[in-house]
Structure formats: C-alpha cells, structure tokens
Design a protein that fits this description.
The structure is a homodimer of 311-residue chains. Chain A is of the alpha/beta class and 311 residues long. Chain A folds into 2 domains: 117 residues, ornithine cyclodeaminase, domain 1 (2-Layer Sandwich); 182 residues, Rossmann fold (3-Layer(aba) Sandwich). In chain A, 34% of the residues lie in helices and 24% in strands. Chain A has 11 helices and 15 strands. In chain A, the strands form 2 sheets. Chain A has an 8-stranded parallel beta sheet, sandwiched between helices. In chain A, strands 1, 2, 3, 4, 5, 6 and 7 form a 7-stranded mixed beta sheet that branches. In chain A, helix 3 packs across helix 4 and helix 3 crosses helix 11. Chain A starts with a strand and ends with a helix. The interface between A and B is large, with 40 and 40 residues.
C-alpha cells in the first residue's frame, strides 16, 4: 500500500491547478452526481477528528479523509492539525494511495474554495482584501486569491496584535501592502472582499459593520460551536451561497442564522449551482456571503489530482 | 507512518488472546465509557464501505476502521472484502499505525464476539454446533468457539450444497464431525448452539424451527437490508442480547423485530452488561439470541493488541 509523505505531496502541488478541478467537483456535487454521507465526528477530551468521505458517482476513486485537531499539541511542540486522505478504487474497493498530507491538502482545498467563492461573488473592483485571523488559512486564502484579483492591499485583524504584525511582515515580503487594524469595523470599512478564518465561538463581525458592495467568505466556522458572523448579516445579504446545504443544517454560519430564524433554505444557493447556472453577484452594491464548511468532494478532487501527479 | 501488512499481523495474532480484551471492551462500551459515533456508510454502485471508529474515553488510542465489500470482485479474482484499521494517539491525534489487515482482524474480532456470546448464553451441554453458512465466518466462528465448548459435532447448512460439502471436508480435517443438512429445520433440531453467518436478505430460520434450550448468535445481518431470523423468534426468546443497542436501531435482526412490533428496548440487554452484571442464560431450557452488528470497540481492542504485539 503506497503511503505518500507531505514532502512528496509538496513536490507535486506546483504542477497542479486545483481550482478548475474543485469547481467541477462543486458542480457535480450540487447536481446530485456525488455520494457524500454526513461528516463523521469523534469528539474526545483532548481533541477531535472529522471524517469526510464520498465519491463522484461512477468515478475512478472514493476518498476517506481523516482530519484531527488537538489544540494543546502546541504546548508539546506538535502541530495542532493533522490528517491524511485515503483514495480507494471505486470499482474494487482496493486502496490506491494514502496521502499523509498532515492536513496540508485540506488547507489547500479550503483556500481554493475561498478563491472560487471570490471568483463568483466578489465585487469587480476589490479595493482591499480584509483578512480576519492570522493563521494558516489567513495566509493561504490570500495566496490562492491571486488568480481571482490583482488587489495587493490587505487589511488584517487578529485577536493577538503581535501575530497580526508578524502576518503583516510575512505578507509584505510576498508583495502585499498590509494594514493591521484592531477594530473589525475598520476592516469592514476599508475592505470589500473579506475572508474570515478564525475558530471563534463568538460573533466577530456585526451587521452594522458590513457596507454595501462587500463580499464575505466565512470559512472559519465548520462545527457546531464556531461562528464568526452576526446571523443578521445573512438576513441582510443579497446573496448567501454555501458549499453544501446539507452540511449547513448542522454546522457553519448558516446553521446559526437558521436557528435565529434569519434565513431558510429558500434564501441560500449552493456554490456548485452558481458555478453551473450563474446566480452570483449582480452588481457592485450587493452584499454577498459564502459560508464554507468544507465538502468531501473537495478532498476527492485534490487527492485525485495529487495521486495522478505522482505517476 | 508505519503500515503493517496482513502477513505481519498474522505472525502476531497467535501471541494474543483477544477474548478477554474484547470482553473488557464490551463492558466499557455498555458502561458508557466509550465514545463510538454512528457507523459511517458509503453506498456505491459496485460496493460499499463501512467506517467504524471511536475510543475508550481516556485510553491510549482511537481507531478508525475502513471496511469494504465489493461483491463482484470475485469475478476478477480479487477478494470481496477489504479493509484497514488505523490507530491514532488519543492525546495528540498523531497516527500510531495502519494495520492493513485486508479485513482479517474484522473477521477475528467478529468470531471472538460470537464466542463471547456463546460463553454467556449457550446451554451448558452443547449437543451440536449449528453453522448457517459456509464462508469465512462459518469457519472462524467454529474455530473461536474452542475455548467455550468442547463440542466437536457440527451441523452445517449452506445455500450451495457443494460449498457445504467442502466445509464438511475442511472442518473434519480440523477434528470436527460434520453433518451437512439441506433443511434448516434439521439443523435447529440437531444443534442447540447455532451461529448464523450469511448475508441473507430473506429470513432463513423461522420461529417454528427453534426448540427450547437453543442459543442463536446472529452475526450475518449488519446492515439495513440483511436478515436471517424470523422476527417472531426474538419475541419468543427468553433473552435477547445485543452488542450495541444504538446500532440495533438501524441494523441487524433487532431492527427488523422492532419494526415488526415484536420487541422494544425493554426486551434487550447489551452483551457488555451481561458480562459485567450477569443476566445471561438461567437454565438449559431457555431460548437465547445474541444479535451482533459489530462495534468499533472490538476493532479498537484487537488493533491495540496487535500494535502492542508488534513492538
């Protein structure tokens, strides 16, 4: 059984353009051409795992991804996130490959989904990109937005100002012009393409902060507990797009907005439907939201691409 | 990441006594000391997978088992069942080992659960062991019953008589005296410890066949579609024991009996509770049933034992 290390995976990634593959994945998913069971969850004292798995019906492979978060690993010098993606032959069930990506491919496909959301929903003229958070996704979302916008102005907010300053320094080395703000209202004032990337369990952005002509991709909240946006924002938005309506029943911003009576399934549309049929942003004054919780079809597409890239 | 092949696993198994370990697992499970999420299922055109996963709370590891069934693999010379068990450190989420057992450890832990059921429920004097089916479990259940009963008389029934004759020949080489029957009523007449091991989707044993003083372990049915016993049998039984009440809501014989209004949760008790607190067979006239669908705690215990045996 072939096990591929992160080092090997990293060598293959520059040869892959995952964006069109993952767009196709979302389209197939929203067209009902995939079998994606509910996310498996094991919640333990010191950490938790999520199992995302499924297939594109009649495709070559199915994927099982096991991703873990053990937040006290920091204290012992281990990464808090870990994981692997397993591909199996859809005709025989025989294992094809284990990609021991240590969660990196999840980070990539998550950043790619952010870029796809921005491609279809961000205003034409992005005056500044607002990044909420300073971690891995705060960096990768920015990197993967490159094919979508030329904008190099970034406004960043972090709970920890020191980390925000580090983010500024790191991103400026990559050619961005970064402003650190300590008030999220400032960020929403300055930026019209905002990506929220934190594991916050408290609302960070309130409705009064959000200006017309703003797009927000909310990718931090992917469990029952996490939320970053005031549910009121989803009510006032002109378009609310989600990667998976099914998953939004039990996780993410839309779950909270639904619970608060702010939104129903009639008010939301899947990203794959927008890609296939249109229905994205109509003009530069609309407020649009993309709520991403991460769907196994993304894992399938990135794992297949890496596996093919190996051979 | 360490991957252990079936050949290596087979070398370790003779040094392990999984029965007490799996008994402990059932006890912990029934005492609420484990976290075992619902079984994950991915149903595809040519096959399906089940993901069983969980942990003993505060234990060393958690397990994720991926098991597949691709029934047309036979036609291309591949095994129909496949699988692997992955152990991860419960304190850090770091992968400990991948046991690429190709489903063999599932077969072992399933046979062990059958033996444990017989230990607590079979009549004292086993006149003959009745085996329904002729496949891997038909063989392994018999093998693993050795520590529980000295009985060497076996009555076997198979849909395919040729396979039943082969079974007879193979098992007689192992020291058993085997009678092939073509009528399940005959089997129920001759045997008082019966193990059903088929993937049948039709009732095989009807209520009128079952005599007082019989124990039946039904381990074939583990999905929504499979059943081997007339639900009436579960109603007339003096004791109905199950490995997991939760899982019996959606799979196994008890699900069917529940649907037919023959049984409620008040009528069933978990195997772990019987092991810990008693409540097994009271006398040699009772009819007892054990309905096993396979619980992740069994996978955890066997995987941990093999992993420890490797080092």
């Amino acid at each position: 059984m072939k096990v591929v290390s992160l080092t090997e995976i990293e060598k293959v990634l520059p040869n892959i353009d995952p964006m069109p593959l993952i767009e196709d994945g979302f389209v197939d998913y929203s067209a009902g051409k995939c079998t994606i069971p509910p996310v498996g969850e094991l919640l333990m004292e010191k950490g938790d795992i999520h199992i995302k798995y499924g297939c594109s019906n009649g495709g070559d492979y199915y994927v099982v991804k096991i991703a873990s978060g053990f937040y006290s690993n920091n204290e012992i010098g281990l990464p808090t996130s870990n994981g692997m993606m397993l591909l199996f032959d859809q005709n025989t069930g025989m294992p094809a490959v284990i990609l021991h990506d240590e969660c990196y491919l999840t980070d990539v496909r998550t950043a790619v989904a952010g870029a796809i959301s921005a491609k279809y929903l961000a205003p034409k003229n992005v005056k500044a990109i607002g990044i909420v958070g300073t971690g891995i996704q705060a960096r990768m979302q920015l990197e993967y937005l490159k094919p979508v916008t030329d904008c190099k102005n970034v406004v960043v907010w972090g709970r920890n100002v020191q980390k925000a300053e580090q983010y500024k320094s790191d991103m400026e080395q990559k050619g961005y012009s970064v402003t650190v703000v300590t008030d999220l209202a400032d960020l929403c004032e300055k930026a019209n393409l905002i990506v929220t990337t934190t594991p916050s369990e408290e609302v960070l952005i309130t409705a009064d902060m959000v200006k017309p002509g703003t797009h927000i991709t909310a990718m931090g909240s992917d469990t029952l507990d996490k939320k970053e946006l005031d549910p009121e924002i989803l009510k006032m938005a002109d378009k609310v797009v989600v990667d998976s309506v099914d998953q939004s029943e039990t996780r993410g911003e839309i779950m909270w907005a639904r619970k608060a009576g702010m939104i129903t399934n009639d008010d939301i549309v899947e990203l794959g439907t927008v890609i296939a049929n249109g229905g994205g942003r109509d003009n530069d004054d609309q407020i649009t939201i993309a709520d991403l919780t991460g769907v196994a079809v993304q894992d399938l597409k990135i794992a297949e691409a890496v596996f093919k890239g190996l051979s």
